Predict the structure.
Amino acid sequence: MGVAPIKMPQLGESVTEGTVDKWLKKEGDYVRRDEPLVEVVTDKVNAEIPSPFEGKLVRITVVEGATVAIGTEIAQIEVQDLIVEAPVPAAAASAPAPTEAAEPPVAGSVPASVQRPRFSPAVRRLAEENGIDPSLIRGSGEGGRVTRDDVLAFLEGRGAAASAPAEAATPPAPAPAAADGAGEELVKLSVMRRSIAEHMSRSLATSPHAWTMQEVDVTELVRYREAEKEGFRDRHGLSLTYLPFVIQVLCDALREFPYLNSTWTDDGIVLKKYLHVGVAVAIPDGLIVPVIRDADRLGLIDLVRAVNDLAQRARSKQLKPEEVQGGTFTLNNTGATGSVASQPIINQPQAAILTTESIVKRPVVIGDGIAVRHIMNMCLSFDHRIVDGILSGQFLGSIKRRLEGWSAASIRI
């Protein structure tokens, strides 16, 4: 019999911390291996984390709502015949062992050994860039967390009242007027919405975004899908959407333009030789981007299965941590909402993101005549450190040519 630690898992590339959103078990419960144990939220995923062990949940060390670094112990499970116990951190080894008579943790509190960081790497970086010690700023976020707005307010002299040093000379900012209860409502931010906000702000602060758009005549693709979708559903039990066709064409274009499948580093541009395509999926609390690994190696039917499977499991919080990591390019079908043009924000640390917009019928000049065609806009946001306007235009042009010249013979089964 031994005690095994449950640690905050890595839930995405470049993610350094996660938030415990909801415990699915309570102390004293028996937990089976791979049984959902806790819901964890980051700026990339909202996922149910399965237990890696079978045994009794003897201690929860991180309460709901607390944010801790990746690798931090969040719970302990008593395991029968535990062969190898994880090494105990030095700080934890010096702490006295809890006894049965110990007081239970107060709801909403966080044990001192696992206090959540006061500021994220993005906030720390913003503070350092402006010569500020972030520990001097009292955070307005949940649990005293220092947010980006706190740093900006401090810079503008509005955060003096919230800062720690008594010698601060700037007069305190006036308190905001109370909201009119009849005309306004304060909606508390969910953990996921707060994480998305931080991730989007960090992306804009990191990459100089540029944007371009091209329209595409997808009439032949529309005709093919309309003719085949019912038969495809009968044969495979799956909906045939446009995304798998676009992914195949996108992969061909990424092979032709490798700088769109890269990452910026201080040492240079890292060209990725593999194509892991992230597909944005809308869920009630926000957006998740599960990744189709080696998408260029999959045939159409496998791509349809992958898109359907990842979307369903994203909405039911069943994604595995590795399924939201390692994406090299992101595709978002904003056309599903009726959008005809959008300016997406890059999914760091990628070089670009593509949106496919609504397919609409429009009169188009063909030769000396006019015909009604199915037209779709494609919008690309790109990191201007890596890609210039001419390269982004050539990349979109490559996708455009492939889609407009599309035929059933183009399908890779």
About this structure: The chain is about 25% helix and 25% strand. Helices lie at 90-93, 121-129, 148-155, 191-206, 219-236, 243-256, 300-315, 389-404. The longest strand covers residues 352-366. The chain has three domains: 2-114, 118-174+189-205, 207-410.
